[in-house]
Amino acid sequence: MTAPDFLFVGTYGEPASAGRRGRGIHALRFDRAAMRLEPVALATGIRNPSFLICDAARDVLFCVQEVADFGGVASGAVGALRIDRASGALSALGAAQASGGADPCHLVLAPDGRHVLVANYTGGSIAVLPVGADGAVSPACAVVRHVGSGPDPERQDGPHAHCVALDPSGRFALVAELGLDRIMVYGFDAATGLLAPNPRQPWIAAAPAAGPRQAVFHPGGRFVYAVNELDSTVSAYGFDPQAGTLRALRTLRALPAGFAGRNHAAELQIHPAGRFLYVSNRGHDSIAVFALDPADGAIEPRGHVASGGRTPRHVCLSPDGDFLVAANQDSDCVVLFAIDPANGMPVPTGHAVRIGSPVCARFF
């Protein structure tokens, strides 16, 4: 019998005084034929699980706890949970570990599954935590802290690491540094978990006050795409997989022509086939769609689709690329779309699920 598909949704619950209504991590069963999501389980007692990643090989869900105080230390946390493939229920797998900095907001699992890397927004640090054979995480074996600031006095008063991305080989780690207007480039030692600045190119600059938020490798490994939160743009880079170096190709606006309202671009996803790219816009409340050329990395705008709610902090594609969900943080809903295979556009299915302050979604 084929195991069911699930969608896991992380939420914001703290502080409640800020209107955060999350209750933990929700598990929803995904009925592909009916194009519906059905809530089936809820894991509570996890503080602000704002970013999730799945390890299907070990039936493990990793999550951050985006807080500034963990066990009396100025840090957030990283934890692992066992996934019950039959029910979608989650159970703690070992103890959560300090993330090496406050307000962790992004995770990536190394290709060999032996380490998880986390970006800590407040203070701008990156930490590497070993992962055991069962998926449980151990205390950090490496922490790298950035220094500096950017031109935006409100959002770039100091370093703010927002994303870690590993190239397909697992040899290089890119860090989107919102506070410094840079994409940092590190060499990653898969055996020891240590990080070292790439001597050939320790970083590449974004436009002043752009605020790089997420960086994603194209499936072919020769191109990188980054979303810039503060100026709502998307940048394309060529990537040399041998040297670990980036070269800027093109930067495009993630908003439609004529829009002059307040907006902060958020999540970036690339279709598994490598032909389309999606960016969520918080303010315009839309999903921007771009076409990609896998041969030369070219990026072209294709249009916008309403996210179905307010403040789409996260969008997530199913592993086969047939579906997309938008987590609309300020309207408490997760909205399901089908992807038109011809043009890559998300098509509303008419189905949504009410979840308090959803901020991240992952198909399993």
Q: Please give the radius of gyration in angstroms.
A: 19 Å
Distance between the termini: 16 Å
Strand segment count = 30
The major beta sheet can be summarized as: 5 strands, antiparallel
Question: What's the structural blueprint in terms of helices and strands?
Answer:
Elements: E1 5-11, E2 25-31, E3 36-43, E4 52-55, E5 60-65, E6 77-83, E7 90-92, E8 97-98, E9 102-109, E10 115-122, E11 125-130, E12 142-145, E13 161-166, E14 172-177, E15 182-188, E16 195-197, E17 203-205, E18 212-217, E19 223-228, E20 233-240, E21 245-253, E22 264-270, E23 276-282, E24 286-292, E25 299-306, E26 312-317, E27 323-328, E28 333-339, E29 346-354, E30 358-363
Antiparallel strand pairs: 1-2, 1-30, 2-3, 4-5, 5-6, 6-7, 6-8, 9-10, 10-11, 11-12, 13-14, 14-15, 15-16, 15-17, 18-19, 19-20, 20-21, 22-23, 23-24, 24-25, 26-27, 27-28, 28-29
